[in-house]
Design a protein that fits this description.
Helix content: 55-70%
Largest sheet: 3 strands, antiparallel
Strand content: 5-15%
Radius of gyration: 18 Å
Number of strands: 3
Number of helices: 5
């Protein structure tokens, strides 16, 4: 199995946790951290494929040629890469905090948090938007479908080349 496939499976688990509705209020930072982790992992699937899976004999040229095609797919070009770049390279973006996804906040004493307080919120993941106003769950699902298609293509190629 491709290492990138195992990583995609892990991302599916993260998205399933993110999408789970829960009536227990949690720190708002936890939801932001989950969002950032999912976006970062979605982008790193390509890095793992490149640095690990395609380095075996006979895979490099095919992988390099396919990557030129894959990175032009709209879900990669318009969501995965620019969102990762904004979050991790510029520290911009995240979930839209003024949207309907978050319930009324509660400020609680938290001696472990900077400032000694935490902001707790309820969360409705189906209403979560990115800062551009796009619903995040459909974007996550489209990104996972994109990577599944790419990795399936690679697995088929690599199994016939062996």
């Amino acid at each position: 199995m491709l290492v990138a496939r195992a990583q995609l499976d892990f991302v599916r688990t993260l998205v399933a946790r993110f999408a789970r509705e829960d009536s227990v209020m949690q720190p708002m930072a936890d939801y932001q951290a989950q969002y950032i982790a999912i976006v970062a992992m979605l982008r790193s699937i390509g890095h793992v494929f490149d640095k690990v899976d395609s380095r075996l004999a006979g895979r490099t040229d095919w992988s390099r040629d396919r990557w030129k095609v894959w990175k032009q797919d709209p879900i990669f070009a318009d969501f995965i890469e620019p969102t990762r770049d904004a979050l991790l390279k510029e520290f911009e973006g995240g979930l839209e905090l003024r949207g309907d996804a978050f319930g009324a906040p509660a400020v609680v004493v938290d001696v472990t948090a900077p400032g000694g307080t935490s902001l707790l919120v309820s969360f409705e993941p189906t209403k979560a938007l990115d800062v551009r106003g796009r619903p995040v769950l459909p974007l996550f699902r489209a990104a996972m479908t994109f990577w599944d298609r790419c990795l399936s293509e690679a697995e088929a190629e690599f199994s016939t080349a062996s």
